[in-house]
Design goal:
The structure holds 2 protein chains of 2 kinds. Helices cover 40% and strands 14% of the residues of chain A. Chain A is α/β, with parallel strands linked by helices. In chain A, strands 7-6-5-8-9 form a 5-stranded parallel sheet. A 4-stranded parallel sheet of chain A has the order 2-1-3-4, sandwiched between helices. In chain A, helix 1 runs antiparallel to helix 2, helix 4 packs across helix 5 and helix 6 packs across helix 12. Chain A is globular, with a radius of gyration of 19 Å. Chain B is 29% helix and 23% strand. In chain B, the strands form 4 sheets. In chain B, strands 1, 2, 3, 4, 5, 16, 17 and 18 form an 8-stranded mixed sheet that branches. Chain B is globular and about 65 Å long. Chain B is α/β, with parallel strands linked by helices. Chain B has a single domain, classed as TIM Barrel. At the A-B interface, helix 5 of A face helix 6 of B.
Chain lengths: 323, 430
């Protein structure tokens, strides 16, 4: 095991107390900053997350994905391996869940195989919280339905920090399907704690006015807010979560909200354009913008690795201290 | 049972006579024989000093789940829970398997209830055949067998024409039509109340309009037909306001709310615990306040326990897969005592009216009264008791309670049905 001779990491480990990461809403500002700073250290010492840094040698991280995912699961698995941990994959398809087992029983069975951390994705909000109450290993939320996706929120914020420095006073717009977006919720809490002004923008059937009650600006008009925003985070339309289509057609949605070259021309010169991916090209963003100079989409992916290394290491370290 | 019983020294509260004073009650042949009798001879004496003595509580619409869903509750376990909660009469809903839509179904429940020798049961039978919301069930025959009201329980009639016919047809038999108002098209798939909390949690939600739209429909149809309507488990400020308006116009409508809707809000769902997943959903503080105000001014006539038991293993599922439901009979009175009486919102006389006298009137049954000659269905309440809710020792098979772990004040000390002691709190006997 490498010595912890990096003072920032030692400081972080001594100050982080949570054995689980379930959401960003309940984190304090200090905890949030600590996570972001730790991720930045990991990115630096692994030279952009290319090198191993085996702080979790001999540990096992299980991916429990009850819902499809490719990039988040790969990112968590790679983060665990960069830290020297073993990884095991569990997918709902073909599992005992189809035989009627409860999710708690499934998790307890996986845990009984001496798993140290459980990375959980589930279609129902609160399922990671349910599991955290019922297992003793660390639980990391990798997306619980439309509720939260804390590591996605962290990597988005880390990316903004890299490009714009301090977030205080920055105007960040989350555009699209806010109602069904866990990325939106994690971004909202994280950004607000760091002092950014958050705008949620999209059709009125997908963007509730209720967000104003927690200090978020609500808009249904992308063209009106566009000249004033510093960061645009373009969220995917979650067709699979919508029982009835909340807008008349994809064509009309794209007309009103797709980020294209014409809209980009009316934005600030240094606007940062993000997308949590996977994106529906041509719906939320046109290819020229997605691949253009303002886009930081691929930085987000790299930062995802650093964030997940930080989260796995800190939660496991906290759990070691409590058990 | 010719043995006479004297319940002595209690504070006797009888809303049916608006009486609240210290008195001795003599029970003979299962009926109230006299208030403050002189010489009682060899009557057995029950010392109720320091306790409230009141007419047994009447549950307007509990689910007992038998036949068909015995893993959730049986008639016997449900009635055992009832008497522990001070209920001497329970009207039970027909969301059984098969649904209670035939005379034989009514008789089955009646026979099971008699065998249990606990609380009395009154059957609420289906409005529609097989609870499908298509054709009227044989309401005449069901009424003759003893069904006291008609309701399709947790599958409210969506078809306005059928509901209108039910209101018309039930008048011939002088039976009320009960409905739990909920427009499926608006509520389908929802897990909790639609509001700021559901927006934050990302949980599929049920707008208050799902309740209000059908409340409006039902009220207008009751007005148009003159049928007796009972709106059950009202939970939203909007519905309360509609009922208040139609009552002022003299429309023959009664309403109930469940006690938890006067106590808890949608904030509880922040824990993501399925014990807070109940129907109608827990709403906002404003709705809670509106329900309490309606209980005070009589817009809402009665309080229900909200008893809708579901097996523990079903409630262990994720929030969207777990069923709506909760165990309520054993905590209802203490919750009301704690959150309505102790807080000064309602006095005991009004509370017991809403829990006993009024529901008996809505159902058109005996009970809810301590007048001489009335059946000796009685509850003794220890108003000073303090206790903590531990669902694992419930008599109900359902251990899912939205108030598990809560400290409550006031507790049922003893329950009599037809003068027979059917429950006594352990260690209470003096």
């Amino acid at each position: 095991m490498p010595r912890l001779d990096i003072p920032e990491l030692e400081h972080a480990r001594n100050h982080w107390t949570r054995p689980h990461l379930l959401d960003l809403e309940s984190l304090s500002l200090d905890e949030l900053v600590l996570l972001l700073d730790t991720a930045a250290v990991f990115k630096r010492v692994t030279q952009g997350c290319t090198r191993h840094f085996p702080l979790l040698k001999g540990r096992t991280c299980a991916n429990l994905f009850f819902e499809n995912s490719t990039r988040t699961r790969t990112s968590f698995a790679l983060a665990a391996r960069r830290l020297g941990a073993d990884t095991v994959d569990f997918t709902a398809a073909g599992s005992s869940l189809s035989k009627g087992e409860t999710v708690t029983d499934t998790a307890r069975n996986i845990e009984a195989m001496n798993v140290d951390a459980m990375v959980v994705r589930h279609q129902t909000p609160g399922t990671p919280h349910l599991l955290a109450r019922n297992v003793s290993c660390s639980v990391v939320n990798a997306g619980d339905g439309p509720h939260e996706h804390p590591t996605q929120g962290l990597l988005d914020i880390m990316t903004i920090r890299e490009h714009r420095g301090n977030l205080a006073g920055l105007r960040v717009a989350l555009v699209g399907d806010i109602a069904h977006s866990r990325t939106a919720r994690s971004n909202i809490w994280g950004l607000k704690k760091l002092g950014a002004q958050v705008i949620v923008c999209g059709p009125s059937t997908l963007v509730s006015r209720r967000w104003e009650a927690v200090g978020v600006e609500v808009s249904h008009d992308l063209d009106a807010i566009l000249p004033h925003v510093d960061v645009l985070n373009l969220l995917r339309i979650q067709f699979e979560r919508q029982a009835a289509r909340p807008f008349p057609s994809v064509r009309e949605y794209a007309l009103l909200y797709a980020m294209n070259r014409e809209r980009l021309a009316r934005a600030k010169d240094n606007i940062v354009i993000m997308a949590p991916g996977p994106i529906n090209r041509g719906v939320e963003v046109t290819p020229d913008v997605a691949d253009g100079p303002h886009s930081v989409i691929l930085d987000q992916v790299t930062n995802g690795l650093a964030v997940r290394m930080a989260v796995l290491w800190l939660t496991l370290s906290a759990r070691d201290r409590t058990t | 049972m010719s043995q006479r019983l004297l319940i002595r020294g209690g504070r006797v509260i009888d809303p049916s006579q608006k009486k609240d004073r210290n008195a001795d009650l003599l029970i003979d042949e299962g009926r109230i024989a006299a208030w403050d009798p002189g010489d009682v001879g060899d009557a057995e004496v029950f010392d109720a000093t320091g306790w409230i003595v009141a007419p047994g509580l009447v549950e307007l619409h509990a689910e007992l789940r038998e036949p068909g869903w015995e893993e959730d509750e049986t008639i016997e376990s449900g009635l055992r829970a009832a008497v522990r909660g001070g209920f001497t009469s329970v009207a039970c809903l027909p969301n059984t398997r098969p649904p209670i839509d035939t005379a034989a179904g009514v008789q089955f429940v009646q026979a099971k209830a008699r065998q249990s020798r606990l609380a009395k049961v009154h059957v609420i039978a289906c409005i529609s055949q097989n609870r499908e919301g298509q054709q009227l069930a044989e309401i005449g025959g069901l009424a003759e067998t003893g069904a006291v009201a008609f309701c399709d329980a947790d599958r409210p009639v969506q078809n306005a024409s059928l509901f209108r016919r039910a209101l018309q047809y039930c008048q011939m038999f002088d039976r009320p039509v009960f409905n739990f108002p909920d427009v499926e098209e608006l509520s389908s798939g929802g897990v909790m109340h639609e509001g700021l909390v559901s927006t934050i949690l990302g949980l599929p939600s049920i707008p208050a309009a799902a309740e209000d739209v059908m409340t409006g429909r039902d009220l207008r149809l009751a007005e148009a037909t003159g049928g007796r309507l009972h709106l059950a488990n009202i939970s939203s400020a909007g519905s309360v306001e509609l009922i208040r308006r139609f009552k002022a116009r003299g429309v023959p409508v009664t309403a109930s709310t469940s006690i938890v809707h006067c106590v808890l809000t949608d904030e509880t769902l922040r824990s993501f615990e399925t014990r807070f997943k109940i129907h109608p959903p827990l709403r906002t503080a404003e709705d809670v306040e509106s329900c309490i105000a309606a209980l005070i001014d009589g817009t809402i006539d009665a309080i229900s326990s909200g008893h809708a038991p579901r097996a523990t293993e079903k409630k262990m599922l994720e929030l969207d897969r777990a069923p709506f439901g909760m165990s309520g009979l054993e905590t209802c009175l203490s919750l009301a005592a704690t959150h309505l009486v102790r807080t000064g919102r309602l006095d005991w006389l009004t509370l017991l009216d809403r829990l006993s006298t009024r529901p008996a009137q809505v159902l058109g049954i005996e009970g809810g009264s301590l007048k001489e000659g009335a059946p000796a269905d009685i509850v003794a309440i220890d108003p000073q008791a303090e206790w903590v809710v531990h669902p694992d020792v419930f008599a109900s098979r359902c251990t899912s309670s939205p108030v598990a772990g809560e400290r409550l004040y006031g507790q049922v000390a003893a329950t009599w049905v037809d003068g027979r002691l059917v429950y006594e709190r352990p260690g209470s006997k003096t």
